[in-house]
């Protein structure tokens, strides 16, 4: 906890954003951090609530009251040590996690939760600025080898944990750089990529070897990893888009969200995309189908590329402004939220079904929509068309990519097509092969991927050594 009466004396203060008119001109982060004194005051608001429900709201079980108290006391270095004991990459989660911990905060019963996410980012950023984060090189090597397929949040967390206990870890990434969706799915205006780069440098100093442009199951057989390593971890994500089944998907200008975001991130990151057809929103009327985070990322990216207009379609009704705390707290509530990207000028259509994509001469000209009833069924006579030159489908993900690795090896799957493995040992149906993150759980939050990567690392270490000191 922080100051015992802090929550009574100090108002909640959040990070501010640069004005929309300024931030849409670039892809850099635009949050304005609180200064040290204001951050310490916010940490002082952490109350002696008896049962810290923020722990249950946080998938990695960050010891939030403990490091809040350390920040309040001005002991930032110990706060950083505490924070890193449960989270390998707090600078990632401090930027892009939706903060279920704040929804679970006891003060959220009064709609003024502790600014946990802001404090977490401040601790992590200061730890880097002060030089407190160093490579943790193991004193001894175990002689065991581990291959990690995928360098997203789960793969990176597992690789770092395993390297720190002395295993030889090799990470295989199909793209030119590490990070997975952290790098290629999340736009720079939400998280720039230098935090990933410095973590990769730290991990390389700890003994992790990265292999880029290696698509396991496509450019290298998966069986070669199983034969060459003592254990293999699948952490390849779940990027197969959900098929909307819409007429007109074959028209020029209709695309799934991820190719659009990936190309934009590669362009911003300076990668060579000269051999690819440009997929941009510049000078276009854009319609984004879907109401989640990926859709919001498409909105913000479209504005920065110079879209003439952006409309976001959501089949769900307008949610309530405030949830009923007595019904849902401390769990994640359904309520009306406006992302920073939506606040930059997007038009939002709720209770809106997409009937199809329309076009002329093979090119998109609009999206045919209709209003829906409570069962999300289109209402006859409510049809209308929204003008569009570019349509981006962002209605979620159906599971891991089938091409390559999963074609080569017959893993047991769950009913949603994810690679089947439990959360006790993370073992798949194939001997000495483990799975963690979105490829096992389905598309989820970065913080869940970090949790699964850490827990899978513990399971692998125990499998290899017969015992483990790694935390769950």
Structural description of this entry:
- The structure is a single chain.
- With 472 residues, this protein is of the alpha/beta class.
- The strands form 5 sheets. The protein has a 5-stranded parallel sheet with strand order 5-4-3-6-17, with helices on both faces.
- It is globular and about 70 Å long.
- The model has no long low-confidence stretch (mean pLDDT 97).
Write a brief caption for the model.
This protein is an alpha/beta fold and about 475 residues long.
What value does the Rg take, in angstroms? Answer: 23 Å
Strand order of the largest sheet: 5-4-3-6-17
Query: Helix amount, in percent?
Result: 25-40%
**What is the number of E strands?**
17
- Quick one: overall form? globular
Nearest-integer average pLDDT:
97
**How much strand content do the residues show?**
15-25%
Q: Termini distance?
A: 24 Å
- Helices and strands: which structural class? alpha/beta
Number of helices: 19
Q: Can you tell me the residue ranges where pLDDT is under 50 for at least 5 consecutive residues?
A: none
Major sheet details? 5 strands, parallel
Which helices and strands, and how do they pair?
Blueprint (H helix, E strand, L loop, with lengths): L5 H4 L6 E2 L2 H4 L7 E2 L3 H9 L9 H4 L6 H9 L3 H9 L5 H7 L3 H5 L11 H14 L15 E5 L3 H12 L3 E5 L8 H4 L9 H12 L3 E3 L10 H7 L2 E4 L5 E2 L12 E3 H12 L16 E5 L3 H13 L3 E5 L11 H4 L18 E3 L2 E9 L2 E9 L12 E4 L2 E4 L3 E3 L5 H4 L24 E3 L2 H4 L4 H20 L7
Parallel strand pairs: 3-4, 3-6, 4-5, 6-17, 8-15, 9-10, 9-15, 10-11
Antiparallel strand pairs: 1-2, 7-16, 12-13, 13-14
Helix pairs in contact: 3-5, 3-9, 5-6, 6-9, 7-9, 10-19, 14-15
